[in-house]
Amino acid sequence: MNLAAIASEASKIRTLRSAAAALATLFALSAGLGAVSGWSVRRALDEGTGVVRDGFDPVSTGVAITGYGQFALIVFGVVIVGHEYTSGMIRQALTAVPRRGAFYSAKLVAGGAAALAVAVPSVLAGYLATQWGLGAHGTGFDEPEAARALAGAVAYLVLTTVFCIGVGTALRSPVAALAVLAPLYFFVSQLLTTLEGTAWFAKYLPDQAGIRMFAVGSGEAAFVQAQDPLSPAEGGTVLAAWACGAALLGYLRLRRLQL
Amino acid sequence: MIEVEDLVKRYGTATAVDGVGFSAPAGTVTGLLGPNGAGKTTTVKILLGLVRPDRGRALVDGRPYTSLARPLRIVGTLLEADSLHRGRTARQHLLWLARSNRIPPERIDRRLEQVGLADQARTRISAFSLGMRQRLGLAGALLGDPKILLLDEPVNGLDAEGIVWMRSFLRDLAARGTAVLVSSHHMTEVARTADHVVVIGSGRVLADLPTGELISRYTQPKVRVTSAERERLSAVLEDAGYAVRTSPGGGLDVAGAGTAEIGALAGEHRIVLEGLTQESGSLEEAYLDLIGAPGGGRAHGTEPLAADGRRNRR
Fold it and tell me: Where are the bilayer-spanning segments (chain A) (predicted)?
């Protein structure tokens, strides 16, 4: 590990406004949406409108907002790579750290660490805000699945960031990377999950598989229930495989890059 | 010390660099001179490991650049001015550079002062002019106190004051033992800054000489003479063995002669001269001639120069 290169990448992240904004958005979105979703679920439960399914689980509701917060980290992963290509700064970055493997691994480590550092408070704040919104229906951290779901949500966000850094490096352009990632996360995976012919395959997509890491019981508050779902460990393994694959693809593309 | 040996780089069917070799020793400013597209930037990028050559070697300090663990402490680089992210401030830009090579961040302010940007340390690069970005690039190049400097078109975008400043700056560094390699497409600028010039055109080295020798060898002093009897004068001069060509103004340019000899010759043949001036060779013209550009002497001369060997390298 080239520690100097990691320090340099961390410094780049701190001084890149779009990256800082994305991380701040993750936190604000988690806390804000958590409170709103907890409050609206509480009202539905209190009024007995039947909108909330029988499988209501306060832990599940508490981590479900991760599915929205992830978009901030997708942008984060893409811009910390992409801004170097669009500005031409990549040339100078590679003269400062000419070993491409060292440069790239430093970016993955610094990006992943920044995502982790913000994901932990965001997931916790989102969970607490949701429980606060749920009021009497809410719970604390001592539910049997709470710790696993919270850790799963954090791991999901970090792995998703790594996946996006890989995709961004492979495509060398933030526009191209977002053009691939946004449709994939916004509708392609949901669409494939709901179509009968593709559902068996859709559960292995990075988001659908990763979601299993923080899914609790049968409560699938915000997500469509897949048939024969993956276990949390399986889902995590599949997302980790996607992240490693994208990171490797990014490395192969970076190694061939001529400027 | 920079050493380049037999470098070849092809892009598809186009050959950008075709067997380039030269060296840039410590304590001198070496100019890498050539028109746009001659292969200068490709050569610099190969030296920095940004582009892989198809053949040949490029070494800095005796090693390939990509094998250096802390390259900024050995080689300072100035690439095109758009190698900066404009959302960062000058200081923030130098900070990530410094950290990548374990250079103490305290040095940043000193370097900004050195290039005249101390007051803009906290200004975003998006507000910088091209000249200021060049200065910032130079501050980045100097960050690690390198003993080798590689500057690609450093005077691009600088105003007259900036050009003079850059020139004396580079001379100072060389005087203190730095090996400076400056690429440029501007002959006069290189002639004023460099001790040694490597001329490159179409990917090949066309000349590799000390600057003084380059000037004396490739710029031919000439005499410009005008007369009403131009044809007869031309014939007389040619009979006497001089290379003559029609100058754009309608007079005659006579290479390799002095005003006295031409005056005497004209008097002998009773030709009245209307003008007789000694002209020193133009550097730019010599350079265009050397690289074979259409702006060179041949394009507007009636006859090619034969006597002085200027065409031999074509």
Answer: 58-81, 102-129, 149-168, 175-195, 236-254
Neighbours of B157 (CB within 10 A): 16
CA atoms of A196 and A203, how far apart (whole Å): 12
Predicted confidence (pLDDT) per residue in A117-130, tens digit: 999 999 999 999 99
- Is residue B314 scored above 50 in pLDDT? no
What pLDDT digit, counting tens, does each position of B52-82 carry? 999 999 999 999 999 999 999 999 999 876 7
B positions 107-166 inside 8 Å of A (CB)? 140
pLDDT band, residue A247 (cuts 50/70/90)? very high
Distance from CA of B78 to the nearest CA of A (A): 9
pLDDT at B242: 87
Q: What is the DSSP letter of B37?
A: T
Structure tokens at B150: 């590689």
The answer to whether the beta carbons of residues A215 and A229 sit under 8 Å apart is yes
Nearest to A11 among B48, B70, B96 (CB): B96
Q: Which residues of A touch B80 (CB under 8 A)?
A: 88, 91
Amino acid at B244: V
List, in order of start, the domains of chain B with CATH numbers: 2-216 (3.40.50.300), 220-279 (3.30.70)
B77 Cβ contact partners less than 8 Å away, ≥ 6 residues apart:
A92, A95, B48, B140, B141, B149, B150, B151
Please indicate whether, in this complex, the C-beta atoms of B48 and A95 are within 8 angstroms of each other. yes
Q: Helices A3-14 and B90-100 sit at what angle, rounded to 10 degrees?
A: 160
Alpha helices in B23-149 (DSSP H): 40-47, 90-100, 107-114, 130-142
B181: helix, strand or coil: strand
State the ipTM, two decimals: 0.88
Percent of chain B with pLDDT over 70: 92
**pLDDT, chain B, mean:** 87
What are the backbone angles phi and psi of residue B24, rounded to the nearest 5°?
-125, 100
Contacts of A15 in chain B (CB under 8 A): 88-89, 92, 95-96
Q: Residue B6: name the closest of B181, B204, B183 by CA.
A: B204
- Cβ atoms of A131 and A213 closer than 8 Å: no
